[in-house]
């Protein structure tokens, strides 16, 4: 083999290694394929959506470099509110959506829930009630959405179990939620769905009121509830 050709091949090999190394450092995001929805209610709801996208959120650092597929922000519940202002108490996510990388710059929303709130669960009637004082660490987040370093929107998300919540972009409002009951494996991403908030419901749908049994109606009420919370707490 001629010397010039060997030199060219060697340089090509070096470039390939550098590209691979760069991809590993940045944490190239896996593109999710077809997803099965184990949760029956969610599967039914997804079928009723005009459009949705499956995404694979990852936790990154302030520079956008990959940290983990685990999305929970490691903050303990005994941190005082005045201590939650440093850069170490911010959390960043990267989501590839509609062929664009969205960068979420979020901080803990300490004022969202009282530290001594109680969760009450009802199982069909008043005789089957379970009340539990919450001791979970804060996991409700709010902040901005950036693309190529430019702020393009705002977000209010819960990272308690995957990412659930709302974000606003110039071209619309979007909701995100994890694929429920998806088997989680360490080192692998947790698929989520993103769908656009519909400004108008289909004509055949009745005006919803919370308390009805329809899955789509319940989801609509939840969406409106999230928007109200965003307005009051952001």
Automatic annotation (TrEMBL):
Classification via InterPro entries: Peptidase_M12B_N
Pfam families, per database record: Pep_M12B_propep
Stretches assigned to the Peptidase M12B propeptide domain: 54-145
Domain of life: Eukaryota
Cleavable signal peptide: 1-30
Coiled-coil residues: none
Key words of the record: Disulfide bond, Signal
Name of the featured protein: ADAM metallopeptidase with thrombospondin type 1 motif 12
Species this chain originates from: Lynx canadensis (Canada lynx)
Gene (name only): ADAMTS12
């Amino acid at each position: 083999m001629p010397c010039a050709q060997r030199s060219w091949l060697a340089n090509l090999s070096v470039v390939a290694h550098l590209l691979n190394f760069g991809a590993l450092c940045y944490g190239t995001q896996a593109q999710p394929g077809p997803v099965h929805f184990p949760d029956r209610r969610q599967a039914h709801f997804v079928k009723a959506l005009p459009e949705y996208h499956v995404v694979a959120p990852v936790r990154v650092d302030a520079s956008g470099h990959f940290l983990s597929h685990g999305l929970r922000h490691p903050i303990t519940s005994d941190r005082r509110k005045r201590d939650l202002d440093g850069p170490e108490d911010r959390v960043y996510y990267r989501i590839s959506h509609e062929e664009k990388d969205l960068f979420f710059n979020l901080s803990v929303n300490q004022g969202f829930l009282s530290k001594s709130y109680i969760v009450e669960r009802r199982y069909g009637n008043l005789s089957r009630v379970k009340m539990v004082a919450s001791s979970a660490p804060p996991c409700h987040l709010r902040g901005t959405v950036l693309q190529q370093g430019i702020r393009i929107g705002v977000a209010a998300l819960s990272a308690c179990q995957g990412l659930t919540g709302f974000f606003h972009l110039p071209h619309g409002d979007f909701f995100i939620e994890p694929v429920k009951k998806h088997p989680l494996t360490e080192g692998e991403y947790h698929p989520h769905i993103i769908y656009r908030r519909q400004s108008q419901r289909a004509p055949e749908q009745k005006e919803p009121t919370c308390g009805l049994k329809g899955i789509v109606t319940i989801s609509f009420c939840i969406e409106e509830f999230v928007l109200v919370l965003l307005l009051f707490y952001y």
